[in-house]
Design goal:
The protein is mostly helical. It has 21 helices and 2 strands. It has helices spanning about 35, 45-55, 60-65, 65-100, 110-115, 120-150, 155-170, 175-205, 230-245, 250-255, 270-285, 300-310, 310-345, 365-375, 385, 390-425, 440-455, 470-475, 475-495, 520-525, 565-570; strands spanning about 25, 30. The protein has a two-stranded antiparallel sheet with strand order 1-2. It is globular, with a radius of gyration of 24 Å. The two termini are about 20 Å apart.
């Protein structure tokens, strides 16, 4: 990996003051009402981004989703599928890192898909990803009901309602409130995973309630290690994709870091945490464990292992940690979804969402976008009619496929970005971050493998018997993406391009979109055949970011009071 030694200062202009920020709408300087001009605030520090990067993906997918994966696919399918998806995610994040460090703005990979691949595809992707985050909040609130069933099955909807109020209230404050809570919750999850790995090894070798050596016994019980045949194996892919979801939203977070290009996380530790945890779960928990995963409930394998190690008290402790993890995951999804909707509303020259969602409070919080994103969480109340376990499974499928579409889009954007970089003759040494070992195969690998995952993982919904509801949960987002993309092309050609639009000459800032500015020429108005961005003419210099050492001094406390915690942080992060 290489980094350029210097940047051209002539490409970076000073940001306007808060009151000078505006957005060019249809050729006119159309400043929003005063709340909209405040914009987002860069309030996340390096330590927060690094810990959120590692802990942000350790959530319900790992703590609860592994129970569903084990029950449907068996220990071998779970280990293989999580390993394959983990490697795909790792390569995908390296590709995203190249673009995010070169052009770090709010909107992240949605904007990269628009700039480097196709505006209509990027439009559909942005709305799809906002819906992904909104449904993720509903999924996490439903997961809270499942976790609480370890203690009591009464009034599950009340738990979701209380969690919803807490999350919305928290995200109504500034970004630092989100960052600080997410940092400590992520820290707790990372420490818990480390404890689980150690405890899982001890349980396996005989330090358990029955004082027996388990070894690989659960891989040889009837039905194991592959449960459900090819359908069971393929079905684990979507659960694994749900578990790894959230890593790509680091690009969204990068738009609000104090020093974006130096804060791309090292995600290899995420893979290590996942693979070791998956291996120990498959060794210690039988796939047919009672109530591991069914229509009404799902039991966390982590809670089961802690119970095997000691007593119900240990299981209750682990279940409490999982409950905080659910809270953390919901917090992360709500924050990301709010910023995606905000980014859609500030697109120039034509907003992709109503401009009301760009209005922010004095603390820099897009309040209307927050309320719209959180409103989708009403889906979690459906558990009262169809069962928490069944509802969570459907929501998990939808979010998992949406995550895969996001990774596919990153691959497409990276493919076009790299081709444009080479075609226009720019030196690779000018790239601020380059995953050299993924050249040139990285984007092609991501595009091909993710496409295959999307197509085959719904096998169990078709064979041996067709399940309409399961099929819809696996594939509904594909026609939605197509319809929204084509709808944007038709709308743009029929209405938006019917008037001339001048380019936006504003200097880039954290609300600047990476969407190419088209002029309202006759050629643009009637460009029906090709919506693919021309890599020969795309501007690779605008929106580039120059590093500023803003957070290096104040990032880490130097007092002895926190010395132990920072040493532990340096070890795990």
């Amino acid at each position: 990996m290489t980094r350029s030694a210097s940047r051209s200062s002539s490409r970076t202009k000073p940001e306007p003051s808060v009151r000078e920020q505006h957005v060019n709408i249809d050729g006119a300087e159309a400043p929003f009402p005063q709340p909209a001009r405040r914009g987002l605030h860069r309030g996340l520090s390096a330590r927060q981004v690094q810990m959120i990067a590692i802990g942000g993906t350790i959530g319900t997918g790992l703590f609860l989703g592994t129970g569903k994966s084990l029950a449907q696919g068996g220990p071998a399918s779970m280990l293989i599928c999580y390993g394959i998806v983990g490697f795909i995610v790792y390569v995908t994040l390296l590709l995203l890192g190249e673009m995010a460090t070169q052009y770090p703005v709010a909107g992240s990979f949605n904007a990269y898909a628009i700039r480097f691949f196709s505006p209509s595809y990027g439009f559909a992707l942005s709305w799809n990803y906002w819906f992904n985050d909104a449904v993720s909040v509903a999924s996490d609130l439903t997961a809270a009901q499942l976790v609480l069933q370890f203690w009591t099955p009464s009034y599950p909807w009340l738990v979701s309602l209380l969690f919803w109020v807490f999350l919305v209230s928290l995200n109504s404050f500034n970004v630092k409130a989100y960052g600080e809570l997410e940092y400590w919750l992520s820290f707790l999850k990372v420490v818990t995973i480390v404890i689980f790995i150690i405890l899982g090894i001890l349980v396996n070798v005989g330090v358990n309630q029955s004082h027996t050596y388990i070894g690989a016994h659960n891989w040889h019980i009837p039905g194991a290690p592959f449960v459900g045949g090819f359908g069971g194996f393929a079905n684990v892919f979507v659960t694994a994709s749900f578990a790894y979801g959230g890593t790509e939203s680091l690009g969204i977070t990068a738009g609000e870091t104090e020093n974006p290009s130096k804060n791309m996380p090292k995600v290899v530790k995420i893979l290590l945490f996942y693979i070791l945890s998956i291996l120990l779960i498959g060794l210690n928990v039988p796939w047919d464990y009672p109530n591991l995963s069914n229509k009404t409930t799902t039991t966390s394998p982590f809670t089961i292992v802690f119970t095997l190690a000691g007593s119900n008290v240990a299981g209750s402790f682990m279940n409490t940690v999982i409950l905080t993890s659910v809270l953390s995951a919901g917090n992360h999804a709500l924050f990301a979804g709010t910023r995606v909707l905000y980014g859609l509303s500030v697109v120039s020259p034509t907003p992709h969402a109503p401009r009301i969602f760009s209005r922010t409070t004095r603390a820099g919080v897009p309040l209307y976008a927050l309320l719209a994103t959180s409103s989708i969480s009403v889906l979690c109340l459906g558990s009262s009619f169809i069962g928490s376990g069944k509802l969570w499974g459907w929501l998990q499928n939808i979010v998992g496929v949406s995550n895969q579409i996001a990774w596919l889009s990153i691959g497409l954007a990276s493919w076009r970005f790299r081709k444009a970089w080479i075609r226009q003759g720019r030196s690779l040494d000018e790239m601020k971050f380059r995953a050299s070992w993924t050249w040139p195969w990285g984007p092609y690998f991501v595009i091909i493998t993710v496409t295959l995952l999307i197509l085959i993982q719904g096998w169990s919904s078709i064979f041996p018997t067709f399940s309409a509801v399961d099929f819809v949960s696996f594939y509904i987002e594909i026609p939605v993406m197509i319809v929204m993309g084509l709808g944007w092309v038709l709308l743009k050609n029929a209405f938006i391009d019917s008037t001339s639009v001048s380019g936006n000459a504003d200097p880039p800032n954290e609300t600047t979109s990476l969407i190419p500015r088209e002029t309202g020429t006759r050629e643009a108005r009637y460009k029906w055949k090709s919506d693919i961005v021309d890599i020969d003419t795309i501007d690779l210099y605008s929106d580039e970011y120059t590093d500023e050492p803003l957070d290096e001094v104040k990032d880490k406390p130097t007092g002895k009071r926190f010395s132990f915690f920072w040493k532990l942080y340096d070890i795990v992060a």
